[in-house]
Amino acid sequence: MARTPIASTLFLMLILCILASPKATNATTDFSPRVEERQLPTAMHSAMDRVPRIAVGRKEADLIGADNRVLQAAVDYVAALGGGLVEVGPGEYLMHDSLHLRPNVTVRGVKGQTVLRKAPGVVSALVLDGDFGEQQITVADPNGFAVGYGVAVWDDRAGGFHTTVARITGQKGHTFAIDKPLMADCMVGNHAKAATVFPVVSAYHAQGARIEDVTIDGNKAENATLNGCRGAGIFLYGSHGMVIQGCTIRGYNGDGISFQQSNDVTVSDCLSEDNADLGLHPGSGSQRPIVRRCIARRNGTDGLFLCWRVRHGLFEDNVLEGNGRFGISIGHKDSDNLLRRNVVRSNKEHGVFFRVESLGMAPHRNRLEENVIENNGGAEIRIRGEVNDLVFRNNVIRDSRPQERNVGIQIDETVGPVVLENNTIETQTPIEDRRVPR
Questions:
Q1: CA angle (246, 366, 412) in 5-degree steps
Q2: Which whole-number Å values give the CA distances from 232 to 276, 384, 421, in the listed order?
Q3: CATH architecture for the domain at 59-119+198-433
Q4: What is the DSSP letter of 66?
Q5: Cβ neighbours of residue 57 under 8 Å, at least 6 residues apart?
C-alpha cells in the first residue's frame, strides 16, 4: 500500500531522530573537570556560579523587619549554608545589639539608603562584684536592659581589651545572664558599671566576611562611650581577610572603624566622620592592612591611628582632615608601612605624628610618598622617639594660612637616620632638626 505524503514525512523524521541520537552516533557529553577548575581553599568542592542569597527589608523582601533581629536571622541563615550574600534594603534598622558578621558572608546595603542606627543606651552601676569568668551581672537599675540586647561591662581598672562586650541571654530581677565570661574582675569598689553599648557591626573570627554600602548612625548623644579595643561603629577582632567597602560611619560614641588582631583587612571607599574618638583604627598586630580612598574627618581624636604592631600596610589616597588631634598617628612597632597620595589637612595638632618609642619598639622604615600635608595645628610632621630609617619622598608640606608660624618637619634629638628626598616644603621653618650632628 502506498504511503501518504504525511506518513512518509513522519517516517523520515523518525529515522533522522534515531540517527541523530547519542546512542546512534556514540556521542556523549563530557562532564569531566576542566583544567582551570580548582577546589576552594577550605572546602571539598570547586566554586559555584550560584551561592546562597537572601533579601532583607522593611517591605518586599524574603525576610521583613526593621531591627537587628531580622538582619541577624538572615546572616545566620546564609552562614549555615556555608556563606553567601545578604542584601539589605533601604530604610532604618534599629540596633539593640550588634549585627554579628559570620565567616564568608557578605552583607550589602543600598548605598546612602541602608541605615543601621544604634538604639538609645542605658547605664547602671553594678551592685555585686562581677568576677573574672562569671557570666552574669547584677545592676542597680534594670530598666533598659533586656534579653537579646548587647551590653558592655567594665570598671575603673578594667578598660581597653578587658572591657567585656556580650549579649544578654536571660533575666531574673536585677540579675542578667550574658553569653560571654567577664574579661576581668569588675568591682563595685572600682565603680563597676554595665551599659547597653556595643559595636553596631561586629565581627569576631569572621574570616572572609564583607560589609558593603551600609550607613552606621552611632546615635552618639544617647549612648555611653565604648573604647576602640572592644567597640566602634564597625569593629573586627580576629577576622582575617575581611573587607569593609563603601560604608559610612558617623556619630558613634567611640571609634568609627576599628580592627584588632585581624590580618589582611581591606577598608576602601569609606567615610568615618563626627565620631567621638578615632576615625580609622587598625591595631593590635593587624598585619598587611589596606586602607584606600577613605575619608576620616571631624573625629574627636585622630583621623588614622596605627595602634600597636601594624606592619607592612598600605594606606593610599585617603583624606584625613579636621580631626581633634592628629591626622595620622604612628607608634609602637608600626614598621614597614607605605603611606602615599594621602591628603592630611586642618587637623588640630600635628598632621603626621610619630609617637615616642624606644629603639626596639619604634616604628622603623615607614615611607611617606606623594602626600599633601597642610594647614595643621602643630608641626606638619613631628618625629619623636628612637625611630630609624623613615623615608619622606615627593611630599608637599605647606601652610597656606596667613600669619601662621609653622614648622614643616620637626625631628627630635633621639631620632635616627631619616631620608628626605624631593619634598616641597612651604612653611616658615621648613625643617627643625634637633639632632646633634655626628
A1: 120
A2: 10, 28, 38
A3: 3 Solenoid (2.160)
A4: S
A5: 63, 64, 88, 89, 90, 91
Neighbours of 148 (CB within 10 A): 13
How many CB atoms within 10 Å of residue 200?
Answer: 28
Question: How would DSSP label each residue in 149-205?
Answer: -EEEEEBTTB-GGGSEEEEEEEEETTEEEESS--SS-B-GGGT-EEES---SEEEES
Give pLDDT tens digits for 173-195. 999 999 999 999 999 999 999 99
pLDDT tens column, 17-62? 555 555 544 579 999 999 999 998 888 999 889 999 999 999 999 9
* CB within 8 Å of 387: residues ≥ 6 apart: 354, 357, 362, 363, 364, 415, 416
Q: How far is CA 176 from CA 30, 148, 166, 183, 186, in A?
A: 61, 11, 11, 16, 15
Nearest to 165 by CA among 156, 154, 157, 176: 154
At 6 the three-state DSSP class reads: helix
C-alpha cell recorded at residue 99: 549585627
Query: What is the rounded CA–CA span in Å between residue 296 and residue 311?
Result: 21
Q: Cell 523587619, residue? A: 65
Give the three cell numbers for residue 206: 569572621
